[in-house]
Amino acid sequence: MNSGAAATNGVLTPTTDAPVAGDRVRVAYGVFGRLGRVTSTSPGYVLVRYDDGARELIDSARRPVWVVD
C-alpha cells in the first residue's frame, strides 16, 4: 500500500514503492490534488480512475501519487 508517497499516521511521507491496483490515491493536481483509485500499473506509469469518472495515465516520475487509504 505504499507509493511515490504513502500515508502513515496521517502524514504523507515519500517512498520508492509504486502503488498497486486497488489502492486509493491522491494525484498531484492544483492545490489539493485529485482523488481516485488505481486500476492498473506498469513500470513508471499508473492508470487512475478518478472519483468523478475520468481516467488518466500518470507518469509517476513527473507527477507525485500518494496512497491515502
Structure, explained:
- By secondary structure, the protein is an all-beta fold.
- The protein has a single domain (5-67), classed as SH3 type barrels.
- The protein is 0% helix and 51% strand.
- The protein contains no helices and seven strands.
- A seven-stranded mixed beta sheet has the order 2-1-7-3-4-5-6, with no helix packed on it.
- The model has no long low-confidence stretch (mean pLDDT 83).
Mean residue pLDDT: 83
**Tell me, what's the shape?**
globular
Order of helices and strands: EEEEEEE
The domain tally reads 1
Identify low-pLDDT runs. none
Total DSSP helices: 0
Radius of gyration: 11 Å
Largest sheet: 7 strands, mixed
Alpha-carbon distance between the two ends: 8 Å
CATH topology: SH3 type barrels
The overall strand count is 7
Beta-strand percent range: over 45%
CATH second-level architecture: Roll
The first-level CATH class is given as: Mainly Beta
* Percent of residues in helices: under 10%
Strand ordering within the main sheet? 2-1-7-3-4-5-6
Structural class comes to mainly beta
Brief overview:
This protein is an all-beta fold and 69 residues long.
Topology record:
Layout: E1 5-8, E2 11-14, E3 24-27, E4 34-42, E5 45-50, E6 55-59, E7 65-67
Parallel strand pairs: 1-7
Antiparallel strand pairs: 1-2, 3-4, 3-7, 4-5, 5-6
